[in-house]
Each structure stands twice: as structure tokens, then as C-alpha cells.
Amino acid sequence: MGKFYQLKDIYGNDISREQSNALKLYFKEIYSEDILKKRYLIEDKNIRHVHHYLELEEDLKSLLHEYKDCKVSFYRTSYEGPYQIQEIDLYDRGVVTERTKTLSNDHKIICFHAIDILSGHEIHRETKKYCHLPNGSTYMFSYDDQGQCITIDNQSCNKV
Known about the structure:
Blueprint: E1 3-8, E2 14-15, H1 17-22, E3 25-32, E4 35-43, E5 46-53, H2 60-63, E6 71-80, E7 83-92, E8 95-105, E9 108-115, E10 122-132, E11 138-143, E12 149-154
Parallel strand pairs: 5-6
Antiparallel strand pairs: 1-2, 1-3, 3-4, 4-5, 6-7, 7-8, 8-9, 9-10, 10-11, 11-12
């Protein structure tokens, strides 16, 4: 199928080029062989943020020059059995500002944590772990600075 792009509104609905011209905010998604490669957040006709999904052979450092005028999130995805591991590095004009890592199974996040940019260590207070039950209930576990669980919230009760 080759390379192609799709335009989407902020809700993920497909839109035409004409419709995008009337919107303040929309996405342009670039695909190669049906695989999402880049997702541009466009606001007032300017690129505000790029989500770049790295392939194994791509080097993040060599790509930074392409995004010197905007924010970019680089996604590295790997798999361990049925689990998806996604590492995300956020850069703002070439400077790393945030690092996160998620573990998912069946498109549901099991664990999320932020990583300290300088030390490379997990930031415990920003870690969230999730337990998804067969009945549809989801519980979220939050942690303190030492990595001790401090709260367990039933996320199912928080849905509107």
C-alpha cells in the first residue's frame, strides 16, 4: 500500500483537507504499509507536537534536527510475549524534558512510570499500576517517594 496520510479531528474522526482548513486543531497521521509512523498535532496551521514511532534501525539522536522548532515524542515499542513495552522520550526544541515507560497487555496499560532524566531511575511517586478485572472494573495503585503503595482507587467508579 506504500505511504499515505490521514487527517483526523481531535476526537479521532477522519476529516477532509477542506474540513482541516476550518479547524483550529487537528492531526495529520503518516502511515507506511498501514503502520503509523508519525502523528502531527497541528494548531493554527503550525506543527505543535510530533509523535514519532521509531523503527528498530532508527536512531533518535540523528532525528532530533528534524524537530528543532517543535515538541516531539519518540516512541520505542518492543514486545515480551503478550506484553507491549513502550518507552517514550519527549523533547522540546532538541532538549529532553520527560521520559516515561508503559507496560500494556491487550491494549490496557498495566504499569506506567516516569523516569528521572538525569539519573535514569524510576520516579516512584509518578508510578501508576493497574489491575483490570474480568467484570470491567479497574483498580489503580499509586505510590509514594519510597515506592510504597499509598492508595488503591477503583477507576470504574470515576467514569462519567
